[in-house]
Amino acid sequence: MDPSPEAPTAEAVAERLFGAVLGTVDLMSTFLGDRLGWYRSLAEDGPATPPQLAERTGTDARYAREWLEQQTVTGLLHLDSDGAADERVFSIPAATAEVMTDQHSLSFLAPLGRMFGAVGPALPRLLDAYRTGDGISWAELGDHAREGQADANRPWFEHRLADALAGVTDLHGLLARPGARVLDVGSGGGWSSIALGNAYPDATVHGIDIDAPSVVMAAANARTAGVSDRVRFSHGDAAELPVEHYDVAFAFECVHDMPRPVDVLTAVRRSLTAGAPLIVMDEAVAETFAPDGDELERMMYGFSLFVCLPDGRSSSPSAATGTVMRPDRLREYALAAGFGTVEALPITDFGFFRFYRIT
């Protein structure tokens, strides 16, 4: 039977897969350049030959040469001077430097390489998990994933969170009230809590996370940012939160990772003073599932397959939500936790995210 006009040919599918292979090579090579300090050295110390780059970064010159050539062939680096293999001089264009090294830029995407790079060592266990229904936690993925997640969201918290919240008048007024007590559930590397502390200096912010190394990282980040006097972090289960203590709670991109989201949301509800809101930021995926999704859907399913769903299933019992948590699923969790309303906030142009107010 002939394929319908809409059906792709085998050649088209093969071409798409080949493009994905090229993209994978680029992503994994950015992981090398990011983690080995090669991008940063080129940006901060200037152009280099392979031996010079290797000496600066304490790495191997032959590997450095292969990476420099690959990066130049793929168009991310520039060849300044040709010659014998180890005498070629390479430099980093300003645009590449921003994307790969500027932790404060909204275009900083090097952390995505870390996230997927962290999956590599876990692939054999991931295969087993897919057979047995078990999971792989953030702790098992290690620092590459942990730091990648924190650094990917950092610029958005630093540059956009204050303005986004200021645009929601009643929420802004609540946060700006002297002595406001703010809870940040699943605070990770702490950048959301730090941004809240900077935006609302009369408030105190308490970040809590189940991952102990993330709490250590967050506390160090707060000290460096000079806000540790009003932004603190603790390691623990949100089920142990004090009752009727907080005036506002936030959950930034973490509800979909929770094995038992209803239990956590119930504890958060009890920790809030009467009428206080919980603000959830999560992926701005489509309202419903449909074939042939857009690039955001495709990327979020990628994170779900390799990171978030396995993490969510690393503890049992598990809701097994996955990264693609659609609005109706969040509403289901919130109502089951005893909240009454869930509404999308009018915050747009905030990366891949959508904000909800739950009361």
TrEMBL record:
Pfam families: Methyltransf_31, WHD_Rv2258c. Residues 31-101 form the S-adenosylmethionine-dependent methyltransferase Rv2258c-like winged HTH domain. It is an enzyme of class 2 (transferase). GO terms for biological process: methylation. Keywords: Methyltransferase, Transferase. One of its GO terms (molecular function) is methyltransferase activity. InterPro entries: Methyltranfer_dom, SAM-binding_MTase, SAM-dependent_MTases_sf, WH_DNA-bd_sf, WHD_Rv2258c. Its EC number is 2.1.1.-. SUPFAM superfamilies: S-adenosyl-L-methionine-dependent methyltransferases, Winged helix' DNA-binding domain. It comes from the Bacteria. Residues 178-289 form the Methyltransferase domain. This is Class I SAM-dependent methyltransferase.
